[in-house]
Design a protein that fits this description.
binds protoporphyrin IX containing FE; Cytochrome p450; 5-stranded mixed beta sheet; alpha+beta
């Protein structure tokens, strides 16, 4: 990576400047994860880039986890790069710091607890089976379009008790809020979510059920209920966070399985709890969320002089790929001991949807391998990658 003499702020040590665009890391088109790992290996733990309005990047796994979990030094006020877009985000609970963050998280944790997710397993399994069964006789399928883009949103619609009719529109809006240079601006996509969710939340307020949206509008937080604005910002965040992540994670996973018959065989003989446990190694290998924190005050941090208000990017994918943390890190080894990663973050904002995500991935793998144990990538697949808040894989077409 070239070190450039650019017009950089005075507090930045020029030896830490790397001219990299986090949304176009060199080599990412061919392999998103290899590209980030190569950047990590060629760089000091913390670097500064002039791209995207200028920001830091934490590239060492342990340093990234430190930034992510330490809300005393690193705020969630702005978590999207560039800063001008991040300022518009303002969703709940992602852009709120503790202690104000706590009651919102309590609400989400109870609405998406392990017990609640276990209660959804059979719905998730039935959805997976219904989608996979028709593929078997076809001998091939566009996994991205026919499964990955349909499955998580169907589960989400079940979780919130909403019919599937508008799922395409929702996916489009979610993509617009997680990718750079979207076809409609971030604010317009956010308003689209509010327009969609507003009447549904009103209906749940009037007639609550057992679903997550009813829980959001009726839950008691510190002796009150959420305002209309708060419930919209919270419900929108849950929707965005739970769709594009799973869509692309499934794409990266199935591409890897298509290319690795030994791993398929190892997974095919496991019982379901073992498959569920094995997904942790997949999440380590295929982390994909690139977010940021706002520096709260001037400080020296792992060789970098950070200034209050600077943004520091935390590409969660680099933690699991750090060789100092997980040896031979590009290899998926489901027997790996002490596997560590930040795919779901760490600290107060750690993903409340992780049990749901793990279940969606494990059920997909188990039900797929049961019916289609042997498969490969088709010649007309387009597994090119791109980056955004969520790493993307274009089109995984499988045949058998
Ligand atoms: C592949 C699947 C997923 C990955 C890799 C993932 C990753 C993450 C990460 C890294 C964060 C932390 C953000 C931060 O530290 O600022 C996060 C937060 C969050 N995730 Fe997930 N997620 C996934 C699936 C889901 C699902 C299925 C849902 C819900 C349906 C969900 C809901 C959320 C919410 C609401 C937050 C914000 C939590 C807070 O700010 O307190 N996620 N996720």
């Amino acid at each position: 990576m070239a070190t450039l003499a650019l017009d950089i702020p005075d507090h930045i040590d020029p030896s830490l400047v790397v001219d990299v665009d986090i949304y176009h890391v060199p080599g990412q088109v061919d392999d998103f994860h290899q590209a980030w790992k190569a950047l990590q290996q060629a760089s000091p733990p913390v670097v500064w880039t002039p791209q995207n309005e200028g920001h830091w990047i934490a590239l060492s796994g342990p340093v990234l986890a430190e930034v992510q979990s330490d809300h005393e030094r690193f705020s969630n006020q702005i978590i999207v790069i560039p800063k001008s877009v991040g300022k518009l985000h303002q969703l709940i609970p992602t852009t709120i710091d503790p202690p104000e963050h706590r009651p919102y998280r309590k609400l989400l944790n109870s609405g998406m607890s392990l017990a609640k997710v276990r209660g959804l397993h059979e719905t998730i399994r039935a959805t997976a089976v219904e989608l996979i069964e028709p593929f078997v006789a076809q001998g091939r399928c566009d996994f991205t379009a026919s499964y990955a883009q349909v499955f998580p949103i169907s589960i989400f619609m079940a979780l919130v008790g909403v019919p599937m009719a508008e799922s395409g529109h929702i996916r489009y809006l979610a993509e617009c809020m997680t990718r750079p240079n979207p076809p409609i601006p971030f604010e317009e996509a956010k308003q689209g979510f509010f327009d969609y969710l507003g009447p549904i939340l009103d209906a749940r307020r009037a007639n609550p059920g057992e679903d997550l949206l009813s829980h959001i509008v009726t839950a008691d937080i510190d002796g009150r209920q959420l305002s209309v604005e708060e419930s919209l910002a919270l419900a929108t965040q849950v929707l965005i966070a739970g769709v594009d992540t799973v869509v692309n994670f499934l794409g990266f996973t199935m591409l890897h399985l298509a290319r690795n018959p030994e791993l398929r065989k190892e997974l095919a003989v496991l019982d379901f709890p073992q498959v569920l446990a094995a997904t942790n190694e997949l999440f380590r290998r295929f982390g994909l969320v690139t977010i940021a924190r706002t520096v709260r005050h001037d400080m020296e941090f792992h060789g970098a002089s950070l200034k209050a208000g600077d943004l520091i990017c935390i590409p969660t994918q680099v933690h699991g790929l750090d060789e100092t943390v997980n040896a031979d890190s590009l290899k998926v080894d489901i027997a790996r001991k002490g596997c560590r990663h930040s795919a779901f973050g760490s600290g107060p904002h750690m993903c409340p949807g992780q049990e749901l995500a793990r279940a969606e991935v494990a059920i997909t793998i188990a039900e797929w391998l049961r019916r289609i144990p042997e498969f490969r990538l088709a010649d007309d697949a387009d597994p090119r990658c791109s980056a955004g808040i969520v790493g993307q894989i274009n089109r995984v077409v499988l045949e058998w």
